[in-house]
Design brief:
By secondary structure, this protein is an alpha+beta fold. It has three domains: 26-89, Uridine Diphospho-n-acetylenolpyruvylglucosamine Reductase, domain 2; 96-206 and 429-444, Uridine Diphospho-n-acetylenolpyruvylglucosamine Reductase, domain 3; 209-416, Vanillyl-alcohol Oxidase, Chain A, domain 3. Helix content is 27%, strand content 22%. It is built from 14 helices and 17 strands. The chain has helices spanning 26-30, 50-63, 113-120, 137-143, 150-153, 181-187, 222-232, 278-289, 301-306, 330-341, 358-361, 390-404, 424-429, 431-444; strands spanning 43-46, 67-70, 86-89, 96-99, 104-108, 125-126, 160-166, 172-175, 196-203, 205-206, 210-218, 240-248, 263-271, 293-299, 317-323, 349-354, 376-384. The strands form four sheets. It has a seven-stranded antiparallel beta sheet with strand order 14-11-13-12-16-17-15. A five-stranded antiparallel beta sheet has the order 4-5-9-7-8. A three-stranded parallel beta sheet has the order 1-3-2. Strand 4 and strand 5 (104-108) form a beta hairpin. Helix 7 (222-232) packs across helix 10 (330-341) and helix 10 packs antiparallel against helix 12 (390-404). The protein is globular, with a radius of gyration of 22 Å. The chain starts with 25 loop residues before the first helix and ends in a 17-residue tail after the last helix.
Length: 461
Amino acid sequence: MTHVPLHDRPDLQVPGRWLRPGAPGYDTARRIWNGMHDRRPAFIAPCSSPEEVSEALRYAARTGLEITVRGGGHNVAGTAVADGTLMIDLSPLRTVTVDHAARVAQAGGGCLLADLDAATTPHDLACPAGVVSHTGLGGLTLGGGYGWLARKWGLTCDHLLAAEVVLADGSVVEATEDDHADLLWALRGGGGNFGIVTRFTLRLRPVGPVHYHTGVYPLAAAQDALAAYRDFAPSQPDDLHTVGALKHAGTADWIPAELHGRPALFLTAAWFGDPDDGPAHTARLFDTTGPAATLVRRMPYAELQSLGDHGEPAGHRYFTKSCYPTDLTPETAAAFIAAAQEIPSALSSIDFEYLRGAIEHVPEEDSAFPSRGAPYIFTASSQWTDPQQDTPNIAWPRRSIERLAPMCTGGAYVNYLHDEAPGRVLEVYGTHRHARLAAVKKAYDPANTFRRNQNIPPTPS
């Protein structure tokens, strides 16, 4: 494909709502969550219907422009925007409708998680999804979707009942279990490789007040606390989800002053059964680990979903790597702690959690999502603001994952694939699943129009 500066060609007319460099609103529209990616598309096409998405795709095919797709603009790799391309901006598509009786929601392709929660939680319903409410629903769903309810109900992609998809040739199809079932399978974890989803149909689950219990530990006590977490985690019921973080402690009132600003371990448990039963279940963890301080609250589910928002503001610089440890042995725990001791920025964090539960109950054949049986996930997320500090902050997640490699499965979370070596996508999906995805790609996008992502090329002819 060519990279002609089309905005200089008067013979190629574009809709008046499209933005080009220099137009009012262009710089705002091209900006995404991760401040590392300061890129300038040739055009930005805001789309409020599948017909407008079709129009943009057909223009790209006619002119040879490559495309990117922006849902929430939250992917850490910055796949929503690229220099000299046509950015198809789905942010006008944020309508959510809820069928309370059927426990089904229909959500536009540009929705954020906050949009979905705002529409569903007044009905005491939710679609399991993410932990930061300004995350885009589209990217999260297509790449999997870990979140607080994953152990109880499964991933976001497991709740995808149907999808309205604009294909590379501009045609619009509805992928369901009965029609384009192969496409629906691929959309459940195969990433944004197969088309542009303009409407998600999602199964909803009942939610109510959440029993929330968190504790903080000095780093010197982390090895023993992680050993206790290892003993506790596999025995927790699916109504309980416990997560861990290694990061600099903040200055909240409940955190001891001697830990303020210092690397520390946090363990957090959220109970999604009867909230009156929660204290007994979470106490099993904290009674054995001896935290320096704890915070216990009952809160609405919607508040839990937004707890992580303030810690990941738009415009900061981010670099993230993940892996799946096979166990939390003393050696693995020591590697966690060593990584925490090397954190180069006080804004960065290590997150880990015990998975399984409903995640592994979903049959492998029901979705393209890989590594369902992984017991643990480990994520090293750099966050900083000064571009002069890019080198150490990019090196730290890489080094942390390399240290853990002998203790891991070899996979990684699709939504955190970032700056990978050739062949990494194949390694993450595995040979059989990748071949099936490549066959679906050949059927729906044989020219690989959707390639500015964690790309799966079509099966060669």
